[in-house]
Write a structure and sequence with these properties.
The complex is a heterodimer.
Chain A lengths: L11 E6 L8 H12 L7 E2 L7 E2 L3 E9 L6 E8 L7 H4 L6 E3 L6 E3 L9 H5 L5 E3 L6 E3 L4 H4 L12 H5 L5 E5 L6 H9 L15 E3 L7 H4 L15 H12 L5
Parallel strand pairs in A: 1-11
Antiparallel strand pairs in A: 1-10, 2-3, 4-5, 6-7, 8-9
Chain B lengths: L4 H21 L7 H23 L19 H25 L5 H23 L11 H17 L3 H22 L2 H5 L3 H5 L6 E6 L7 H6 L5 H24 L4 H24 L15
Helix pairs in contact in B: 1-2, 1-4, 1-5, 1-11, 2-3, 3-4, 4-5, 5-6, 5-11, 6-10, 10-11
The structure holds iron/sulfur cluster (3 copies).
The site of one iron/sulfur cluster has 14 residues of chain A, from helix 3.
């Protein structure tokens, strides 16, 4: 059913910390691995060892340079996967009912056996979170690892999305945004978690934590006083030499 | 957006085909018998041929029947239902004209409304997309409908109506082009809102996620040079409007009438190609397309 639920019992999603992400792409690899071996059609690659490799990914990491008015530019690594929007435009455009948002936890999924591969949902997503698999010709997207988070065959520590579990920097957090006491709600409140493209009106569930202010060099540079020039004006023999040389042609 | 030939062929051909059905449904021209048969064959070839072209762009056309189920929310689903309903109703109406020599006016009227509805729902598939600011405007369905009825009038040989409708469509086309060129800038979506990093400073793409191409880049990051686009716009405008209008002003002649129709269809093709090729999808911003 491609009409959206008016509300969902839980709002499961991710907090992505742009301050701590180191841009290692480990989440990209673990996401591709888990979702190729488990639920749904595998994420295919085309020409993987050739000149122009290309493939389906549910999570990609961009890098941006941010240049403030003053001072040095900052480099921000930017992981991007489905934001499991509350007002998901990708769901309502789907003609077949293959795309849907779950009432129980808010996860946005594609029923691959109903998908006709029209691609319209990918057109409707502003974030580039949906990719048509070139092999299977069905729409693929982040499942929030729905086959991990409720999976009782896994040890409890592994019942989180693959990308969250794998991140060596702890830059991805998984939880329920409907619960104000959850880890993700507290992180969002304390660190000023933000929406991407709020003007598109999609009401993303996933939040991004902005990079924190960097330490400034003058605050920490305890050696600076010792690095002052020892003598500003030459004295004695050096002073005489300096003057003598300045009087010579071309000296000034 | 990637200008996929199947979608361009579909929207051009079926737009004109349903336009002809609108005029036939309204009884202009009031043909019966064999000449009605010829008109209906042309209209159905265009409309159905377009629909078949659009089905080839599906990944799983064998599941296409499922697309009739989500009319409550999906314009694509509504389009499918409208198209099938229009074709069925117009077939009944056409049967009356061809085999019984009688015009069942009420059925024709319903068929005409459904044919217009099909083109309107097609246009709404594009119009609803906030992600493509160039399309997300009421001028999009207005232009699709105008192209539909003016092309239909031309094919139906309704010269005096075609003349005024072509003038109107030409004006709309210019409006759509002029407004569209600033639509992305005016939408308020840019790399700063896309990354949320705008209040830290100027944002610039540093490194793409992958060195190779991907689905998103192939589908959404198509860009056409401004100079090529201007040339194509002139070609589209001359073929779709200027030439047919001049021919209408000349004394009627069957050969020239054919030239007017072919020129118009070629012009609509060029215009539709530009409609897709010039449309900027906001996801391109993440990849540094059109960054300022
Ligand atoms: S991020 Fe895109 S695919 Fe995911 S729910 Fe939002 S609109 Fe849909
Ligand atoms: S590609 Fe599949 S999931 Fe997406 S809109 Fe079309 S049918 Fe629905
Ligand atoms: S939640 Fe799972 S599917 Fe989604 S990006 Fe993370 S690893 Fe990929």
């Amino acid at each position: 059913m491609t009409t959206l639920p008016t509300s969902t019992q839980k709002k499961l999603g991710l907090v992505i910390d742009l301050d701590t992400c180191v841009g290692c792409h480990a989440c990209v690899v673990s996401c591709k691995g888990w979702n190729t071996e488990n639920y749904g059609a595998p994420l295919s690659d085309q020409d993987p060892y050739g000149a122009v490799p290309s493939g389906t990914f549910l999570n990609r990491v961009h890098s941006y340079e941010v240049q403030p008015e003053q001072g040095q530019a900052a480099l921000v690594h930017f992981p991007k996967s489905c934001l499991h929007c509350e007002d998901a435009p990708c769901v309502t455009v789907c003609p077949t009912g293959a795309s849907y948002k779950r009432v129980e936890d808010g996860i946005v999924l594609v029923n691959e056996s109903d998908c006709i591969g029209c691609g319209l949902c990918a057109w409707a997503c502003p974030y580039g979170a949906r990719e048509m698999d070139a092999e299977e010709k069905v729409m693929k997207k982040c499942t929030l690892c729905v086959d991990r988070i409720y999976n009782e065959n896994l040890p409890e520590v592994d019942r989180v999305p693959a990308c969250v579990r794998t991140c060596p920097a702890g830059a991805r957090h998984f939880g329920d945004f409907a619960d104000p006491e959850s880890n993700v709600s507290i992180l969002t409140a304390e660190r000023g978690g933000m929406d991407l493209m709020p003007e598109q009106g999609t009401k993303p569930v996933n939040k991004y934590l902005p990079p924190r202010e960097r330490d400034r060099s003058e605050d920490v540079d305890i050696l600076a006083p010792f690095l002052d020039p020892v003598a500003s004006e030459p004295k004695g023999f050096m002073g005489w030499l300096d003057k003598a040389l300045s009087t010579m042609p071309g000296g000034q | 957006m990637h200008p996929a030939p199947s979608v361009i062929i579909f929207s051009t051909m079926s737009g004109i085909g349903f336009g002809l059905l609108v005029w036939l449904g309204l009884g202009h021209p009031g043909v019966t018998g064999f000449s009605a048969f010829v008109f209906f064959v042309v209209a159905y070839l265009l409309a159905v041929g377009g629909l078949i072209a659009s089905a080839t762009h599906l990944g799983h056309p064998e599941r296409a029947l499922k697309a009739f189920t989500q009319w409550r929310s999906s314009w694509l689903s509504r389009e499918g239902i409208c198209a099938v309903a229009a074709l069925i109703v117009m077939a009944i109406y056409g049967m009356g004209l061809v085999f019984f020599g009688s015009r069942w006016g009420f059925i024709g009227l319903i068929g005409a409304v459904l044919s217009l509805g099909t083109v309107f729902t097609t246009a709404m598939i594009y119009t609803q997309l906030k992600t493509v600011p160039r399309w997300n405007h009421y001028t999009t369905p207005a232009m699709f409908l105008a192209f539909c009825v003016s092309g239909g009038a031309l094919l139906a040989g309704q010269w005096s109506e075609a003349f005024w409708l072509l003038l109107l469509t030409a004006a709309l086309q210019v409006l759509v082009w002029v407004r569209g060129d600033t639509a992305l800038a005016q939408s308020g979506t840019n790399l700063a809102t896309a990354t949320g990093l705008g209040n830290m400073g100027g944002v610039r793409p540093f490194e793409a996620p992958h060195t190779g191409p991907n689905y998103l880049l192939r589908e959404f990051a198509f860009q056409i040079g401004r100079k090529h686009a201007q040339t194509l716009r002139i070609i589209a405008f001359v073929l779709a409007f200027v030439l047919p209008l001049l021919i209408i002003l000349l004394p009627f002649n069957h050969f020239l009438a054919g030239v007017a129709v072919i020129s118009h269809i070629a012009g609509v093709f060029a215009s539709r190609w530009l409609f897709f090729a010039q449309a900027e999808h906001v996801v391109g911003l993440y990849y540094g397309a059109r960054s300022v």
